[in-house]
Amino acid sequence: MTTPVLNEIQVGSVDGSLLVGAVTMTPADDQLYLAWIYIDSATGAPAVSSVDGLGLTWSLVKAQCSGQDEHRLEVWSAIGEPSNTDPVIALLSGMPDGGYIAVERWGSVLVSDPVGASSGYNTNGANGACSGGVDTNDATGSITTTANGSVVAVGFVVDQIFSHTAGWTARVTNDDSPAGAVRASLEDVTVAGIGAATVGAANNLAGADDWALVAVEILGALRVTPTAASRTLARFFDPHTGRPLRDVARWQ
Amino acid sequence: MDISFDRYGPTSASITLARGSDDTHHSALMPDGDGALLEVDARSLGVPDVWLGQCESVDEDVTHAAAEGAMPVSVTGPWAWLDDIGIHDYPARTAPAGQIISDIVGASTAAHRLRVGANIHRGVPIEYAASGASIGSMLMDLAGITWEYPYLTARPGEGRLTLDWFDPLSVPDARQNVTLLPGRNCTEVKLTTRLRRSAAEIVGVARSYVQGVGAQSTAMRGPAGAVVGRRAALAMSIYAAPAAQLGGGPVVIRQDLPAAATIREEAKTQLRRAASIIPGGSATITDSALFEYMRPNTILAGVFNDGMGLWGRCLVQIRTATWSLGREEVKKVSVSFDLWSVSDG
Predict the structure, then answer these.
(1) What would the DSSP string read from start to end of B227-291?
(2) Does B25 touch chain A if contact means CB atoms closer than 8 Å?
(3) Which residues of B88-100 are buried (b: 16+ CB within 10 A; e: fewer)?
(4) pTM of this structure
(5) CB A56 within 8 A of CB A131
(6) Rounded Cα distance, A185 and A182, in Å
(7) For residue range A37-88, what is the model confidence (pLDDT) as tens digits?
(8) pLDDT tens, B279-315?
(9) Chain A interface, mutation test: which of B2, B25, B37, most A Cβ atoms within 10 Å?
């Protein structure tokens, strides 16, 4: 299995609107689009009703509220053949205090099933409830990976200033928002082994906070080590003589 | 593009061509009025075998006569033309099925595009008259009678195939190399319970059927035990190693079953009683290191966490393999298979 490659990432934000985005992405066949939607609201973070863009069908991968419902992080995915260049927009079910979106485009993914494991954590633990949590300064969790060479991407949403995990590649560091607004983190790492892996790091928040974290495993393509000669050859033969006629030039 | 193989070799393919291109001109798709052969070679991407078949039909929407567009072409494996080629002048004779097919195919001057391979199992002699049959029906008839089986392998760049004829016990055994583990090397794993199967399928799954040289002994082994018959003077002593893994009760010696045919019938009855529920399944392979083993008939190991707790450890025999191919990548590999529970006995 090859390791997925991040080809593009675009971000956008919104205040006081049901729509988060719009983010213009390059349309590309058989690449995985992941939309990370970070939501902040002191009165209960609204869920994402739908995601649109590129003419693709978007599906929810994982949603996680924070332990006191002040934050929410949802990850949506789409793959296929984009039919237009419409920007990616998330429609929320209620008005947030703030919203932020990061859309990634991953190549070399397992086209038939590009998303492997996923997990969500908050101050109440795995798939934690949206109430009763106690603020901590450790936005961490775990994910059980399923394939060597896959990529684990982890995002969390907080109010506090934060730091990324050592050894991971930081993709989004939206920590310059005014106090009380959404702060968004996104980072990833290539999986070294199958099994449970810790995501996030102790003391990665500058102070105790009501955080929500989502981790997603991105599976790589089945391609054998690509070389110049690694390709599918299709050729016509004469049905009567068995002689080669021509290589098929254009096919799907 | 999708290509599929079943337990006898290439079976079907679909390819979408660019409408209006040189590839879709009638001189390419149907030279001299007959569907062109299509060879698909993705061995450099890990697909173990070349696929070969004949273009069968084209679906085209000409409403708007667009110069550009997609033109899906359905392609059928070699059985399409093998069923059309008749056999002449092969009166009834008694010989091993492998010998019969070698004689008939080797002597035929028709455009069957087959070359008899080096793997020709010569099992129990049977009486068979092929005159009037097609090459395809002859192969299937003999497979049904003997439970042996043909396999067609495309010969790269030649527009023809190698015909081999196998003992059902000689299927490729990759249990030491591959254990299917859902979530680790495969996904979309589904098990399906089938309530009735042919005896040949049951035997093929279990690899539980052993036939001695010259039909001197025959044995089958099912989940409830084994049934062994023998000719009067000769003891049955042959077991394939995988059959030993099947466990079950003690071997039953049936001196009253003197001939292979009666042993076979008795064994079928026993197997159907004991193995009335045999699951099949399907999975998508996610580890390219396993590609080389994704051939029909190959035996793998499997560990499945099914609801009934029956298949925690089992044999998996691949029935079909379908490859979805891009130009430079394998997009998806789907296999269907049969399962046979194994014990430590």
Answers:
(1) EEEE-TT-------HHHHTT--S-EEEETT--SHHHHHHHHHHHHHHHTS-EEEEEEEE--GGGG
(2) no
(3) eebeeeeebbbbb
(4) 0.63
(5) no
(6) 10
(7) 999 998 999 999 999 999 999 999 999 999 999 999 999 999 988 889 999 9
(8) 788 999 988 889 999 999 998 888 887 776 667 777 8
(9) B37
Structure confidence by residue, pLDDT tens digits, A200-223? 999 999 999 999 999 999 988 765
ipTM for the complex shown: 0.74
């649109």: which residue's tokens?
Answer: A52
Angle between helices B260-274 and B199-206 (to 10 degrees): 80
Cβ contacts of B58 on chain A, cutoff 8 Å: none
| AA identity, residue A80 | G
- Tell me which chain B residue has its CA closest to the CA of residue A194: B184
A99-127 tens-digit pLDDT:
999 999 999 888 777 898 999 999 999 99
* B184 near A CB under 8 A: yes
DSSP per position, chain A = -PPPEEEEEEEEEESSSSEEEEE-----TT-EEEEEEEEE-TT-PPPEEEEE-TTPPPEEEEEEE-TTSSEEEEEEEE-S---S-PPEEEEESS--SEEEEEEEEEESB-TTS-EEEEEEEETTEET--SSS---BS--EEEEEE-STT-EEEEEEEESS-B-PPTTSEEEEEE--SPTTS-EEEEEEEE--SSEEEEEE-TT-BSS-B--EEEEEEEPBP---S--TT-S-EEEEE-TTT--EEEE--SB-
